Amino acid sequence: MLIVLAVANRSPITLALNPFDPADRFLSVTAPLFVFIFVTFALGAICGGLLTWLRDGRVRKRARSATAEAKRWHSEADRLKERAETLEKQSAPTAAIGKLQQYPKRATPGKPVPNALPAR
Prior knowledge:
The chain is mainly alpha-helical. It has 2 domains: 1-55, no CATH class; 60-95. It is 62% helix and 8% strand. It has a two-stranded antiparallel sheet. The longest helix is centred in the middle third of the chain and has 34 residues, at 57-90. The N and C termini lie far apart (87 Å).
């Protein structure tokens, strides 16, 4: 499509940038029409990309802050997990004794069990 456009518009034209004196050679450019069309499309793409990048700056900023917050939460979770493992290792013998104490004692005939669970 672009090749067809370039071949069909090969004749040179003059783009005058001075509205008061169009014959001024200093502020005029002579080139084939397809060059002006391609330059216009390229400038439009560059301007559109730049404006989109600037507009999405808020989204990128929120993404960066969310990523930083997620990293903080992950490090906090890792720190708490390590602390829980350390506490579990330190209290392992005590926890085993505590588990044994929660079971009711064996009843002897005629004596009530002191720490037995109430009947339902």
